[in-house]
Task: structure prediction
Amino acid sequence: MQQLKRLGKMNIGSLHIKGHTFLAPLAGITNLPFRLMVKSCGCSVVCSEMISARGMFYNQAKTMKLLATDPLERPLSVQLFGADTPSITRAAKMIEEMQIADMIDINFGCSVRKVVKTGAGVALMKTPGVAEHMLKGLRDTVSLPLSIKIRSGWDATGNQAFEIAHIAQNAGIDAIAFHPRTATQGFGGKADWSLIRKLKQICDIPVIGNGDIKSPEDAFHMIEQTHCDAVMVGRASLSNPFLPSQIDQLINAGTYTSPDTDDIFQKMIELTQAYVSHFGEQVGCKMLRGRLSWFVRGWPNSSLFRKRLSQIRSKHETLSLIQSFKADLHG
Result:
């Protein structure tokens, strides 16, 4: 493939970014250990899980634990969700004062019912007046770069996305991440990349394309077709944390290298150690039962490995299982 030479250095407000790849915020997944792993594999910018602005307001212990960060993952984007301006602006100010993030993202795209029924997430795309008040309040409150993550809206035309983008840009928001699926699609169906192109045509601020990127080639074609400034990778990073770096390689050099099985096994070991260190052995191993299975999807005898994973209870047991599977795979 040819290089995408038109892509220059990436700036979001005052933040200078090396590369053109973002890790999407994924509830229950993009915790600190996972972000550090993806960052170590070459992702340009990683993002936290969704953080409840109201949870921060009440200093809920669970919410505050989600804000655990590490200098090694910088630059870091922290994503907030909420339905009212006072709690969102207060939470954003707290994050800025804590000096843990390089940018703040506001969620306009979550379509989970319990979020939508509060007026947050994609529900904000139905209320442009509320959205405008919120975004102006944020810009008046914090100096950190600000972005929003949106969907197409509540129908397939994308008109609500274009309206919210116009409001955001006028309010001083620095970038927009766009997942062109409707609120009712969830993750089903197909993302309409043509809407990313239309959004890019009406925006002067960076547009980050998101949706259906499963390979470096997918990202290349999205940028080629839509002229978006960067791409955001979500679920595909679960099985291939090297995907963001492969995308940047393809953009810059027209080719990329693929990790071998030893690289993947090493990341499995590192993730095990990080989860146990961060969450504790009991909780960490319970979470790893599902997490480690991502890496081996489609591999020979992976079903047996996943079955054994469902029973792990200790760090030693987990590492032994990984090494055993590695030995069996290499014959």
